[in-house]
Design goal:
Glutamyl-tRNA Synthetase, domain 2; Rossmann fold; RNA-binding; elongated; Glutamyl-tRNA Synthetase, domain 3; three-stranded antiparallel beta sheet; 19 helices; 10% strand; single chain; 4 domains; two-stranded parallel ribbon; mainly alpha; EC 6.1.1.17; 13 strands
Length: 510
RNA sequence: GCCGCGUUGGUCAAUCGGCUAAGACGCCUCCCUUUCACGGAGGAAUGACGGGUUCGACUCCCGUACGCGGUACCA
Protein backbone atom coordinates (compact mmCIF):
# COMPACT_ATOMS: atom_id res chain seq x y z
CA UNK A 1 0.00 0.00 0.00
CA UNK A 2 1.37 3.39 -0.91
CA UNK A 3 1.75 6.33 1.41
CA UNK A 4 -1.54 8.01 1.93
CA UNK A 5 -2.96 10.43 4.41
CA UNK A 6 -4.16 8.79 7.60
CA UNK A 7 -7.90 9.09 7.98
CA UNK A 8 -9.87 7.61 10.85
CA UNK A 9 -13.48 7.82 11.86
CA UNK A 10 -15.79 7.50 14.80
CA UNK A 11 -19.29 6.47 13.82
CA UNK A 12 -21.72 6.51 16.72
CA UNK A 13 -25.40 5.93 16.38
CA UNK A 14 -27.46 8.70 17.91
CA UNK A 15 -29.48 6.58 20.26
CA UNK A 16 -28.64 8.01 23.66
CA UNK A 17 -25.87 9.00 26.03
CA UNK A 18 -22.22 8.66 25.08
CA UNK A 19 -20.62 5.80 26.98
CA UNK A 20 -17.08 6.21 28.29
CA UNK A 21 -16.04 3.32 26.08
CA UNK A 22 -17.22 5.33 23.13
CA UNK A 23 -15.17 8.29 24.28
CA UNK A 24 -12.13 6.08 24.58
CA UNK A 25 -12.65 4.86 21.03
CA UNK A 26 -12.82 8.49 19.93
CA UNK A 27 -9.69 9.24 21.91
CA UNK A 28 -7.65 6.46 20.34
CA UNK A 29 -8.87 7.50 16.92
CA UNK A 30 -8.00 11.09 17.64
CA UNK A 31 -4.55 10.37 19.07
CA UNK A 32 -3.67 8.15 16.15
CA UNK A 33 -4.88 10.69 13.60
CA UNK A 34 -3.11 13.64 15.20
CA UNK A 35 0.10 11.69 15.62
CA UNK A 36 0.14 11.00 11.91
CA UNK A 37 -1.08 14.42 10.85
CA UNK A 38 -4.20 12.73 9.68
CA UNK A 39 -7.91 13.50 9.69
CA UNK A 40 -10.46 12.51 12.25
CA UNK A 41 -13.94 12.13 10.83
CA UNK A 42 -17.18 12.03 12.76
CA UNK A 43 -19.86 10.11 10.90
CA UNK A 44 -23.34 9.62 12.23
CA UNK A 45 -24.60 6.06 11.97
CA UNK A 46 -28.32 6.81 11.94
CA UNK A 47 -29.52 3.99 9.74
CA UNK A 48 -31.93 2.58 12.27
CA UNK A 49 -34.84 4.93 12.12
CA UNK A 50 -36.67 3.13 14.89
CA UNK A 51 -33.89 3.82 17.36
CA UNK A 52 -33.23 7.41 16.43
CA UNK A 53 -33.33 9.73 19.43
CA UNK A 54 -33.66 13.45 18.81
CA UNK A 55 -30.92 15.51 20.40
CA UNK A 56 -28.49 12.62 20.68
CA UNK A 57 -26.35 13.81 17.81
CA UNK A 58 -25.93 17.30 19.24
CA UNK A 59 -25.24 15.75 22.61
CA UNK A 60 -22.47 13.55 21.20
CA UNK A 61 -20.80 16.50 19.55
CA UNK A 62 -21.02 18.48 22.77
CA UNK A 63 -19.31 15.61 24.59
CA UNK A 64 -16.48 15.55 22.09
CA UNK A 65 -16.11 19.28 22.34
CA UNK A 66 -15.92 19.09 26.12
CA UNK A 67 -13.21 16.44 25.85
CA UNK A 68 -11.28 18.50 23.34
CA UNK A 69 -11.65 15.79 20.70
CA UNK A 70 -13.07 17.74 17.86
CA UNK A 71 -13.52 16.20 14.45
CA UNK A 72 -11.93 17.59 11.32
CA UNK A 73 -14.97 16.55 9.32
CA UNK A 74 -18.48 16.05 10.67
CA UNK A 75 -22.11 16.85 9.98
CA UNK A 76 -21.49 20.08 11.88
CA UNK A 77 -18.36 21.35 10.15
CA UNK A 78 -18.85 19.55 6.86
CA UNK A 79 -15.96 18.34 4.73
CA UNK A 80 -15.05 17.01 1.32
CA UNK A 81 -16.93 13.75 1.77
CA UNK A 82 -20.27 15.16 2.96
CA UNK A 83 -22.87 14.28 3.90
CA UNK A 84 -21.65 12.69 7.11
CA UNK A 85 -25.03 11.50 8.25
CA UNK A 86 -25.79 8.08 6.81
CA UNK A 87 -29.51 8.74 6.57
CA UNK A 88 -28.62 11.48 4.11
CA UNK A 89 -26.54 9.07 2.07
CA UNK A 90 -29.34 6.57 1.70
CA UNK A 91 -29.41 6.33 -2.14
CA UNK A 92 -25.70 5.52 -2.28
CA UNK A 93 -26.00 2.21 -0.49
CA UNK A 94 -28.71 0.68 -2.67
CA UNK A 95 -26.51 1.16 -5.70
CA UNK A 96 -23.70 -0.90 -4.20
CA UNK A 97 -26.09 -3.51 -2.85
CA UNK A 98 -27.55 -4.00 -6.32
CA UNK A 99 -24.07 -4.21 -7.73
CA UNK A 100 -23.35 -7.08 -5.35
CA UNK A 101 -26.55 -8.84 -6.38
CA UNK A 102 -25.63 -8.57 -10.03
CA UNK A 103 -22.21 -9.99 -9.35
CA UNK A 104 -23.74 -12.92 -7.50
CA UNK A 105 -22.34 -11.97 -4.11
CA UNK A 106 -25.70 -11.01 -2.66
CA UNK A 107 -29.34 -11.81 -3.21
CA UNK A 108 -32.86 -10.57 -2.65
CA UNK A 109 -34.76 -12.07 0.25
CA UNK A 110 -38.51 -11.69 0.59
CA UNK A 111 -39.06 -13.35 3.93
CA UNK A 112 -41.27 -11.46 6.33
CA UNK A 113 -40.24 -10.98 9.95
CA UNK A 114 -42.83 -13.61 10.84
CA UNK A 115 -41.35 -16.09 8.42
CA UNK A 116 -37.88 -15.50 9.85
CA UNK A 117 -39.22 -16.00 13.31
CA UNK A 118 -40.90 -19.20 12.16
CA UNK A 119 -37.67 -20.46 10.64
CA UNK A 120 -35.74 -19.79 13.83
CA UNK A 121 -38.18 -21.58 16.07
CA UNK A 122 -38.46 -24.46 13.64
CA UNK A 123 -34.72 -24.98 13.36
CA UNK A 124 -33.97 -24.30 16.99
CA UNK A 125 -32.58 -27.30 18.84
CA UNK A 126 -30.69 -28.01 22.02
CA UNK A 127 -27.36 -27.95 20.19
CA UNK A 128 -28.26 -25.00 18.04
CA UNK A 129 -30.14 -22.42 20.08
CA UNK A 130 -29.73 -19.66 17.52
CA UNK A 131 -30.20 -20.88 13.95
CA UNK A 132 -28.75 -18.68 11.26
CA UNK A 133 -29.94 -17.60 7.88
CA UNK A 134 -26.98 -19.22 6.18
CA UNK A 135 -25.98 -21.32 3.20
CA UNK A 136 -28.02 -24.23 4.53
CA UNK A 137 -31.12 -22.31 5.52
CA UNK A 138 -31.37 -20.03 2.55
CA UNK A 139 -32.47 -22.82 0.22
CA UNK A 140 -35.61 -23.22 2.30
CA UNK A 141 -36.39 -19.53 2.46
CA UNK A 142 -38.01 -17.14 0.05
CA UNK A 143 -35.22 -15.46 -1.87
CA UNK A 144 -33.73 -15.00 -5.30
CA UNK A 145 -31.62 -18.11 -4.85
CA UNK A 146 -34.41 -20.50 -3.92
CA UNK A 147 -36.93 -18.90 -6.25
CA UNK A 148 -36.85 -18.98 -10.03
CA UNK A 149 -35.76 -15.95 -11.95
CA UNK A 150 -39.31 -15.32 -13.08
CA UNK A 151 -40.69 -15.59 -9.58
CA UNK A 152 -38.09 -13.18 -8.28
CA UNK A 153 -38.75 -10.75 -11.08
CA UNK A 154 -42.46 -10.87 -10.40
CA UNK A 155 -42.05 -10.24 -6.70
CA UNK A 156 -39.72 -7.36 -7.39
CA UNK A 157 -42.08 -5.94 -9.98
CA UNK A 158 -45.08 -5.76 -7.71
CA UNK A 159 -43.04 -4.09 -5.03
CA UNK A 160 -42.83 -6.90 -2.50
CA UNK A 161 -40.91 -5.78 0.55
CA UNK A 162 -37.47 -7.31 0.47
CA UNK A 163 -33.96 -7.04 1.81
CA UNK A 164 -30.63 -7.75 0.23
CA UNK A 165 -28.45 -10.31 1.94
CA UNK A 166 -24.82 -11.16 1.43
CA UNK A 167 -24.28 -14.67 0.09
CA UNK A 168 -21.67 -16.07 2.42
CA UNK A 169 -19.49 -18.66 0.72
CA UNK A 170 -19.76 -22.16 2.02
CA UNK A 171 -16.38 -23.01 3.40
CA UNK A 172 -13.72 -20.40 2.98
CA UNK A 173 -11.08 -19.13 5.34
CA UNK A 174 -11.06 -15.40 5.80
CA UNK A 175 -8.22 -13.85 7.71
CA UNK A 176 -6.68 -10.50 8.41
CA UNK A 177 -4.12 -8.88 10.64
CA UNK A 178 -5.63 -6.88 13.43
CA UNK A 179 -3.43 -4.02 14.59
CA UNK A 180 -4.01 -5.05 18.20
CA UNK A 181 -4.64 -8.78 18.04
CA UNK A 182 -2.47 -9.88 15.18
CA UNK A 183 -3.61 -12.70 12.91
CA UNK A 184 -7.35 -13.41 13.16
CA UNK A 185 -9.09 -16.10 11.16
CA UNK A 186 -12.66 -17.16 10.47
CA UNK A 187 -14.41 -19.80 8.45
CA UNK A 188 -17.21 -18.35 6.36
CA UNK A 189 -19.57 -21.23 7.02
CA UNK A 190 -19.91 -20.10 10.61
CA UNK A 191 -21.25 -16.70 9.67
CA UNK A 192 -24.73 -16.05 8.37
CA UNK A 193 -26.06 -14.22 5.34
CA UNK A 194 -26.21 -10.81 6.94
CA UNK A 195 -28.77 -8.34 5.73
CA UNK A 196 -27.03 -5.58 3.80
CA UNK A 197 -29.95 -3.45 2.78
CA UNK A 198 -33.07 -3.35 4.90
CA UNK A 199 -36.62 -3.37 3.60
CA UNK A 200 -36.88 0.38 4.18
CA UNK A 201 -33.96 0.92 1.84
CA UNK A 202 -31.55 1.82 4.60
CA UNK A 203 -28.28 -0.06 4.80
CA UNK A 204 -27.35 -2.09 7.84
CA UNK A 205 -24.14 -1.26 9.65
CA UNK A 206 -22.35 -3.96 7.66
CA UNK A 207 -22.91 -2.36 4.30
CA UNK A 208 -22.73 1.21 5.47
CA UNK A 209 -19.44 0.86 7.27
CA UNK A 210 -17.75 -0.62 4.22
CA UNK A 211 -19.21 1.76 1.68
CA UNK A 212 -18.56 4.84 3.76
CA UNK A 213 -15.11 3.84 4.87
CA UNK A 214 -14.26 3.34 1.22
CA UNK A 215 -15.88 6.54 -0.02
CA UNK A 216 -14.41 8.56 2.82
CA UNK A 217 -10.97 7.06 2.25
CA UNK A 218 -10.62 5.74 5.77
CA UNK A 219 -7.20 4.17 6.30
CA UNK A 220 -7.49 2.82 9.83
CA UNK A 221 -10.68 1.55 11.40
CA UNK A 222 -10.89 1.35 15.19
CA UNK A 223 -13.90 -0.14 16.88
CA UNK A 224 -14.87 -2.14 19.94
CA UNK A 225 -14.06 -5.81 20.23
CA UNK A 226 -17.75 -6.66 19.98
CA UNK A 227 -17.38 -6.12 16.24
CA UNK A 228 -14.74 -8.77 15.76
CA UNK A 229 -17.19 -11.58 14.93
CA UNK A 230 -18.65 -9.62 12.04
CA UNK A 231 -15.27 -8.70 10.61
CA UNK A 232 -15.39 -11.50 8.01
CA UNK A 233 -18.56 -9.99 6.56
CA UNK A 234 -16.82 -6.65 6.18
CA UNK A 235 -13.68 -8.21 4.76
CA UNK A 236 -15.68 -10.07 2.13
CA UNK A 237 -17.63 -6.96 1.26
CA UNK A 238 -14.42 -5.05 0.62
CA UNK A 239 -13.35 -7.87 -1.63
CA UNK A 240 -16.66 -8.30 -3.47
CA UNK A 241 -16.96 -4.59 -4.09
CA UNK A 242 -13.52 -4.72 -5.65
CA UNK A 243 -11.90 -2.41 -3.13
CA UNK A 244 -9.62 -4.84 -1.37
CA UNK A 245 -6.54 -2.74 -2.01
CA UNK A 246 -8.10 0.20 -0.22
CA UNK A 247 -9.35 -1.63 2.82
CA UNK A 248 -8.46 0.11 6.07
CA UNK A 249 -6.37 -1.62 8.66
CA UNK A 250 -8.49 -2.88 11.50
CA UNK A 251 -7.95 -2.44 15.19
CA UNK A 252 -10.44 -4.01 17.58
CA UNK A 253 -10.21 -2.32 20.95
CA UNK A 254 -10.64 -4.23 24.21
CA UNK A 255 -13.86 -3.74 26.10
CA UNK A 256 -14.33 -1.74 29.29
CA UNK A 257 -15.80 -4.06 31.88
CA UNK A 258 -17.95 -3.52 34.94
CA UNK A 259 -15.98 -3.20 38.23
CA UNK A 260 -17.71 -6.08 39.95
CA UNK A 261 -18.41 -9.35 38.25
CA UNK A 262 -17.85 -9.56 34.53
CA UNK A 263 -19.25 -8.18 31.34
CA UNK A 264 -19.38 -4.91 29.48
CA UNK A 265 -19.79 -1.81 31.58
CA UNK A 266 -23.27 -0.47 31.10
CA UNK A 267 -25.18 2.59 32.14
CA UNK A 268 -27.06 0.44 34.61
CA UNK A 269 -23.84 -0.49 36.40
CA UNK A 270 -23.17 3.17 36.99
CA UNK A 271 -26.66 3.71 38.41
CA UNK A 272 -26.25 0.64 40.56
CA UNK A 273 -22.78 1.42 41.89
CA UNK A 274 -23.06 5.17 42.02
CA UNK A 275 -20.73 6.51 39.37
CA UNK A 276 -21.19 8.02 35.93
CA UNK A 277 -20.80 6.02 32.74
CA UNK A 278 -21.73 8.70 30.22
CA UNK A 279 -19.43 11.59 29.41
CA UNK A 280 -22.11 14.17 30.19
CA UNK A 281 -25.56 14.20 31.72
CA UNK A 282 -28.09 12.64 29.40
CA UNK A 283 -31.81 13.03 29.67
CA UNK A 284 -33.88 10.54 27.75
CA UNK A 285 -36.37 12.68 25.84
CA UNK A 286 -39.02 9.96 25.99
CA UNK A 287 -38.92 8.99 29.64
CA UNK A 288 -37.31 12.12 31.05
CA UNK A 289 -34.85 9.92 32.93
CA UNK A 290 -31.57 11.61 33.74
CA UNK A 291 -28.32 9.68 33.60
CA UNK A 292 -25.39 11.40 35.26
CA UNK A 293 -22.25 12.26 33.38
CA UNK A 294 -18.60 12.69 34.26
CA UNK A 295 -18.69 16.35 33.39
CA UNK A 296 -21.52 17.13 35.79
CA UNK A 297 -19.98 14.94 38.45
CA UNK A 298 -17.10 17.37 38.61
CA UNK A 299 -14.51 15.80 36.36
CA UNK A 300 -12.08 18.02 34.52
CA UNK A 301 -12.03 17.04 30.84
CA UNK A 302 -8.25 16.63 30.88
CA UNK A 303 -8.49 14.20 33.78
CA UNK A 304 -11.32 12.28 32.14
CA UNK A 305 -9.37 11.95 28.91
CA UNK A 306 -6.16 10.99 30.68
CA UNK A 307 -7.97 8.35 32.70
CA UNK A 308 -9.54 6.87 29.58
CA UNK A 309 -6.22 6.78 27.78
CA UNK A 310 -4.78 4.63 30.55
CA UNK A 311 -7.68 2.22 30.33
CA UNK A 312 -6.18 -0.21 27.88
CA UNK A 313 -3.02 1.63 26.97
CA UNK A 314 0.25 2.57 28.65
CA UNK A 315 3.62 3.60 27.33
CA UNK A 316 5.55 1.10 29.41
CA UNK A 317 7.37 3.75 31.42
CA UNK A 318 5.05 3.79 34.39
CA UNK A 319 4.03 7.37 33.74
CA UNK A 320 0.33 7.87 34.25
CA UNK A 321 -0.26 11.58 33.91
CA UNK A 322 -0.14 12.73 30.32
CA UNK A 323 -1.21 15.93 28.64
CA UNK A 324 -3.07 15.65 25.36
CA UNK A 325 0.10 16.60 23.48
CA UNK A 326 2.09 13.92 25.27
CA UNK A 327 -0.60 11.37 24.49
CA UNK A 328 -0.51 12.33 20.85
CA UNK A 329 3.25 11.96 20.80
CA UNK A 330 3.46 8.70 22.71
CA UNK A 331 0.34 6.78 21.74
CA UNK A 332 0.89 3.55 19.89
CA UNK A 333 -1.45 0.76 18.96
CA UNK A 334 1.02 -1.98 19.74
CA UNK A 335 0.88 -0.94 23.36
CA UNK A 336 -2.89 -1.28 23.54
CA UNK A 337 -3.75 -4.35 25.57
CA UNK A 338 -5.81 -7.18 24.17
CA UNK A 339 -7.84 -7.93 27.25
CA UNK A 340 -10.72 -5.94 28.67
CA UNK A 341 -10.20 -3.68 31.67
CA UNK A 342 -12.51 -3.41 34.63
CA UNK A 343 -13.44 0.18 35.27
CA UNK A 344 -12.19 1.46 38.63
CA UNK A 345 -13.98 4.59 39.78
CA UNK A 346 -11.54 5.10 42.67
CA UNK A 347 -8.72 5.36 40.18
CA UNK A 348 -10.78 7.71 38.04
CA UNK A 349 -11.18 9.98 41.06
CA UNK A 350 -7.46 9.84 41.66
CA UNK A 351 -6.82 11.14 38.15
CA UNK A 352 -9.17 14.02 38.74
CA UNK A 353 -7.48 14.73 42.04
CA UNK A 354 -4.12 14.94 40.31
CA UNK A 355 -5.44 17.45 37.82
CA UNK A 356 -7.11 19.45 40.56
CA UNK A 357 -3.83 19.64 42.44
CA UNK A 358 -2.09 21.03 39.40
CA UNK A 359 -4.89 23.29 38.28
CA UNK A 360 -4.55 27.06 38.37
CA UNK A 361 -6.46 28.46 41.35
CA UNK A 362 -8.15 31.12 39.27
CA UNK A 363 -9.43 28.44 36.95
CA UNK A 364 -10.76 26.46 39.89
CA UNK A 365 -12.45 29.59 41.20
CA UNK A 366 -14.19 30.02 37.87
CA UNK A 367 -15.31 26.41 37.83
CA UNK A 368 -16.51 26.70 41.41
CA UNK A 369 -18.48 29.86 40.75
CA UNK A 370 -21.70 28.03 39.75
CA UNK A 371 -21.71 26.16 43.05
CA UNK A 372 -21.54 29.41 44.99
CA UNK A 373 -24.18 30.96 42.81
CA UNK A 374 -26.49 28.08 43.47
CA UNK A 375 -26.10 28.71 47.17
CA UNK A 376 -26.79 32.39 46.73
CA UNK A 377 -23.26 33.40 47.71
CA UNK A 378 -21.26 36.09 46.02
CA UNK A 379 -17.54 36.38 46.63
CA UNK A 380 -14.59 38.07 45.00
CA UNK A 381 -12.86 35.81 42.46
CA UNK A 382 -9.49 36.34 44.13
CA UNK A 383 -10.94 35.30 47.47
CA UNK A 384 -12.40 32.13 45.94
CA UNK A 385 -9.11 31.41 44.21
CA UNK A 386 -7.21 31.67 47.49
CA UNK A 387 -9.63 29.27 49.11
CA UNK A 388 -9.38 26.86 46.21
CA UNK A 389 -5.62 26.86 46.60
CA UNK A 390 -5.95 26.18 50.30
CA UNK A 391 -8.34 23.26 50.11
CA UNK A 392 -7.73 21.60 46.78
CA UNK A 393 -5.32 18.99 48.07
CA UNK A 394 -8.19 17.39 49.94
CA UNK A 395 -10.65 17.52 47.03
CA UNK A 396 -11.39 15.00 44.33
CA UNK A 397 -13.84 17.29 42.58
CA UNK A 398 -14.39 20.99 42.13
CA UNK A 399 -17.57 20.70 44.13
CA UNK A 400 -15.59 19.38 47.08
CA UNK A 401 -14.18 22.86 47.54
CA UNK A 402 -17.45 23.60 49.25
CA UNK A 403 -17.25 20.60 51.57
CA UNK A 404 -13.78 21.56 52.66
CA UNK A 405 -14.12 25.31 52.64
CA UNK A 406 -17.74 26.29 53.28
CA UNK A 407 -16.75 28.13 56.47
CA UNK A 408 -14.89 30.69 54.39
CA UNK A 409 -18.24 31.79 53.05
CA UNK A 410 -20.40 31.55 56.13
CA UNK A 411 -19.45 31.99 59.77
CA UNK A 412 -20.08 28.97 61.97
CA UNK A 413 -23.36 28.87 63.84
CA UNK A 414 -22.64 25.69 65.70
CA UNK A 415 -19.32 24.66 67.24
CA UNK A 416 -17.88 21.28 68.01
CA UNK A 417 -17.38 22.33 71.65
CA UNK A 418 -17.16 18.78 72.90
CA UNK A 419 -13.74 18.60 71.26
CA UNK A 420 -12.38 21.47 73.41
CA UNK A 421 -14.54 21.52 76.54
CA UNK A 422 -12.69 18.79 78.49
CA UNK A 423 -9.41 20.71 78.40
CA UNK A 424 -10.89 24.16 78.59
CA UNK A 425 -10.16 26.60 81.42
CA UNK A 426 -10.26 30.26 82.34
CA UNK A 427 -6.66 30.81 81.23
CA UNK A 428 -7.56 29.86 77.73
CA UNK A 429 -10.47 32.21 77.70
CA UNK A 430 -8.12 34.90 78.92
CA UNK A 431 -5.63 34.02 76.21
CA UNK A 432 -8.14 34.50 73.42
CA UNK A 433 -9.44 37.74 74.95
CA UNK A 434 -5.91 39.13 75.13
CA UNK A 435 -4.94 37.82 71.76
CA UNK A 436 -7.97 39.39 70.13
CA UNK A 437 -6.78 42.75 71.42
CA UNK A 438 -3.32 42.07 70.07
CA UNK A 439 -4.74 41.18 66.68
CA UNK A 440 -6.70 44.39 66.71
CA UNK A 441 -3.44 46.30 66.77
CA UNK A 442 -1.76 44.30 64.01
CA UNK A 443 -1.06 46.45 61.00
CA UNK A 444 0.05 43.50 58.93
CA UNK A 445 -2.50 40.71 59.21
CA UNK A 446 -0.37 38.14 57.45
CA UNK A 447 0.06 34.45 58.06
CA UNK A 448 3.48 35.04 59.63
CA UNK A 449 2.54 37.89 61.93
CA UNK A 450 -0.70 36.27 63.09
CA UNK A 451 1.06 33.05 63.86
CA UNK A 452 3.93 34.82 65.57
CA UNK A 453 1.69 36.89 67.81
CA UNK A 454 -0.25 33.76 68.71
CA UNK A 455 2.86 31.87 69.74
CA UNK A 456 4.45 34.77 71.53
CA UNK A 457 1.40 35.35 73.66
CA UNK A 458 0.90 31.66 74.37
CA UNK A 459 4.47 31.34 75.50
CA UNK A 460 4.28 34.38 77.72
CA UNK A 461 1.11 33.06 79.32
CA UNK A 462 2.74 29.70 79.70
CA UNK A 463 0.14 27.78 77.71
CA UNK A 464 1.09 25.13 75.20
CA UNK A 465 0.63 26.38 71.66
CA UNK A 466 -0.73 23.04 70.61
CA UNK A 467 -3.52 23.19 73.14
CA UNK A 468 -4.75 26.44 71.72
CA UNK A 469 -4.71 25.58 68.07
CA UNK A 470 -7.66 23.22 68.05
CA UNK A 471 -9.91 25.65 69.96
CA UNK A 472 -8.88 28.38 67.55
CA UNK A 473 -9.71 26.16 64.62
CA UNK A 474 -13.12 25.42 66.00
CA UNK A 475 -13.80 29.10 66.57
CA UNK A 476 -12.98 29.82 62.95
CA UNK A 477 -14.60 26.84 61.27
CA UNK A 478 -16.95 25.27 63.76
CA UNK A 479 -15.23 21.90 63.64
CA UNK A 480 -12.14 19.81 63.23
CA UNK A 481 -11.54 20.43 59.58
CA UNK A 482 -10.01 22.77 57.04
CA UNK A 483 -6.53 23.89 56.03
CA UNK A 484 -3.90 25.06 58.55
CA UNK A 485 -5.52 27.45 61.05
CA UNK A 486 -3.33 30.46 60.47
CA UNK A 487 -3.96 30.25 56.78
CA UNK A 488 -7.65 30.34 57.52
CA UNK A 489 -7.22 33.37 59.75
CA UNK A 490 -5.15 35.21 57.17
CA UNK A 491 -7.69 34.50 54.47
CA UNK A 492 -10.64 35.46 56.62
CA UNK A 493 -8.99 38.77 57.52
CA UNK A 494 -8.64 40.67 60.75
CA UNK A 495 -12.20 41.70 61.32
CA UNK A 496 -13.78 38.35 60.61
CA UNK A 497 -11.17 36.48 62.61
CA UNK A 498 -11.70 38.58 65.72
CA UNK A 499 -15.43 38.33 65.28
CA UNK A 500 -15.24 34.54 65.14
CA UNK A 501 -12.97 34.37 68.17
CA UNK A 502 -15.55 36.30 70.17
CA UNK A 503 -18.46 34.17 68.99
CA UNK A 504 -16.48 31.01 69.52
CA UNK A 505 -15.55 32.05 73.03
CA UNK A 506 -19.19 32.60 73.85
CA UNK A 507 -20.10 29.17 72.53
CA UNK A 508 -17.35 27.39 74.41
CA UNK A 509 -18.08 29.15 77.67
CA UNK A 510 -21.82 28.80 77.36
C1' G B 1 -24.72 -25.21 21.06
C1' C B 2 -21.46 -22.95 17.48
C1' C B 3 -17.70 -19.21 16.22
C1' G B 4 -14.17 -15.62 17.84
C1' C B 5 -11.26 -13.15 21.54
C1' G B 6 -9.01 -13.14 26.14
C1' U B 7 -6.59 -14.95 31.15
C1' U B 8 0.13 -11.55 35.89
C1' G B 9 -1.92 -8.99 43.16
C1' G B 10 -8.92 -6.69 44.94
C1' U B 11 -8.28 -3.16 40.35
C1' C B 12 -5.11 -0.88 36.25
C1' A B 13 -0.64 -3.03 34.79
C1' A B 14 5.32 -3.68 33.30
C1' U B 15 7.95 -7.89 31.54
C1' C B 16 8.65 -8.85 24.35
C1' G B 17 13.19 -16.56 27.21
C1' G B 18 17.33 -15.17 32.49
C1' C B 19 12.47 -12.84 37.81
C1' U B 20 14.98 -11.88 44.04
C1' A B 21 7.97 -10.74 38.87
C1' A B 22 8.26 -2.96 38.21
C1' G B 23 4.98 0.93 39.08
C1' A B 24 -0.03 3.04 40.13
C1' C B 25 -5.07 2.94 42.61
C1' G B 26 -7.19 1.00 46.91
C1' C B 27 -6.04 -1.17 51.80
C1' C B 28 -2.78 -1.37 56.43
C1' U B 29 1.40 0.66 59.70
C1' C B 30 4.57 4.62 60.91
C1' C B 31 6.52 9.85 60.34
C1' C B 32 4.92 14.95 59.49
C1' U B 33 0.43 17.72 61.33
C1' U B 34 -2.96 18.40 68.31
C1' U B 35 -8.36 18.87 62.20
C1' C B 36 -8.42 16.56 57.58
C1' A B 37 -5.43 16.23 53.59
C1' C B 38 -0.80 16.78 50.91
C1' G B 39 4.09 14.84 51.41
C1' G B 40 7.58 10.99 53.18
C1' A B 41 8.99 5.80 54.93
C1' G B 42 7.37 0.86 55.17
C1' G B 43 3.79 -3.48 54.59
C1' A B 44 0.26 -7.29 52.95
C1' A B 45 -1.21 -8.95 48.06
C1' U B 46 0.02 -11.62 41.51
C1' G B 47 1.79 -15.42 36.69
C1' A B 48 -5.89 -20.22 35.93
C1' C B 49 -4.53 -25.57 35.28
C1' G B 50 -2.01 -29.70 32.66
C1' G B 51 1.35 -31.05 29.03
C1' G B 52 5.31 -29.93 25.74
C1' U B 53 9.75 -26.87 23.39
C1' U B 54 14.28 -25.08 25.83
C1' C B 55 20.30 -25.10 29.59
C1' G B 56 16.32 -21.93 31.34
C1' A B 57 9.53 -20.36 30.83
C1' C B 58 5.09 -15.32 33.30
C1' U B 59 7.02 -14.93 28.47
C1' C B 60 6.80 -19.72 22.73
C1' C B 61 3.40 -24.20 21.23
C1' C B 62 -0.79 -27.60 22.35
C1' G B 63 -4.84 -29.00 25.37
C1' U B 64 -8.28 -28.05 29.49
C1' A B 65 -10.85 -24.74 32.54
C1' C B 66 -12.86 -20.14 33.22
C1' G B 67 -14.46 -15.30 31.48
C1' C B 68 -16.12 -12.18 27.73
C1' G B 69 -18.02 -11.01 22.89
C1' G B 70 -20.99 -12.49 18.74
C1' U B 71 -24.71 -15.57 16.85
C1' A B 72 -31.10 -9.32 14.75
C1' C B 73 -34.16 -6.04 8.56
C1' C B 74 -29.40 -2.90 16.50
C1' A B 75 -25.23 -0.58 16.24
Amino acid sequence: MQQQKVRVRFAPSPTGGLHLGGVRTVLFNYLFAKQHNGDFVLRIEDTDQTRYVPGAEEYIMECLKWCGLNADESPLVGGPYAPYRQSERKPIYREYAEQLVKAGYAYYAFDTPEELEEMRTRLKTEENPSPQYNHAARAQMKNSISLSEAETAALLKNGTRHVIRIKMPDNEEVSFTDLIRGHVQFNTSTVDDKVLLKADGMPTYHLAVVVDDYLMKITHAFRGEEWLPSAPVHLLLWKYLGWEADMPQWAHLPLILKPDGNGKLSKRDGDRLGFPVYAMNWTDPKTGDLTKGFRENGFLPEAFVNMLAMLGWNDGSGQEIFSMDELIARFSLDRVSKSGAKFDYEKAKWFNHQYLLNADNNKLATLFEPVLKEKGITAAPEYVATIAGLVKDRCDFVNDIWNHGFFFFQAPETWDVTAVKPKWNADKTQFFMDWASVLETLSDFSLASVEESFKTLATSMNIKVGELQLPFRIMLTGGKFGPPVFNIAETLGKHETIQRIMNGLKAINA
